[in-house]
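1st attempt posting a full record on here, be nice pls
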Amino acid sequence: MRIMAVEDEVILLKHLTNHIHEAFPEAEILAFDNTDDALAVLPEKKTDIAFLDIAIADMNGVDLAKMIKAAYPGCDIVFCTGYSDYAAQAFELGASDYLLKPVTKEKIEHAISLLRQTNVNKIATKGLYFRCFGEFEVFYHGEPVTSLTKRAKELLAYLVDKAGAVCASADISNAIFRGSSDSYLRVVKKDLVKALSEIGQEAVLIKGWGNLGINREKVRCDYFDYLDGNPRALNQYKGAYMLQYPWAQATFLRLNT
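the predicted structure (as tokens):
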């Protein structure tokens, strides 16, 4: 994923790129304070999203957008400007959004939810990604993790449902394994650790004596994004949550009230 940001005021460019990075931490960001440098890299740097100022010193941002779209028709254009005068032109060009300055993290996130071309779900699934809306699924770099046993997957789902809270082994057994022995939980936990280790992701688990949890900072998850108020996640939720697990009903009811 490659994102271009063009803003001729250096301080505003820094703020813009910081907010973009918060929204797209895995993306490569090309930041320019002039259009000449942006156009120079355009032939060799396929751009997926372009955040453009309108009033750039050496070229109108709408004209720059036309040149970017000519090179890469699938590029999403988001204008960031202090002027509302060009809004009609921007949307005639097919811009995804038109942000009035000051540009904030919240405005960037809203723009993401409106992207017309870019597959934001593909972006979200880079690294380890948990999908909770619908049935619970686990992805690594966009591919399903098939090495999880059925019980190990359910244990992982339960930890994700707790959203970072460390859970006591006895509570886990009572909730999802119907009070099975500690030895049974140890076997399932071992299977989970093994599956995560095989993809280099064991560190997402918080492990202690008699307890277990998920480190939210090391994963991506639609449910976590929803809890954080991410507009894209709020739009994604359609009233279904971890459908295959009866114990997830409590969270489902909370999400739907």
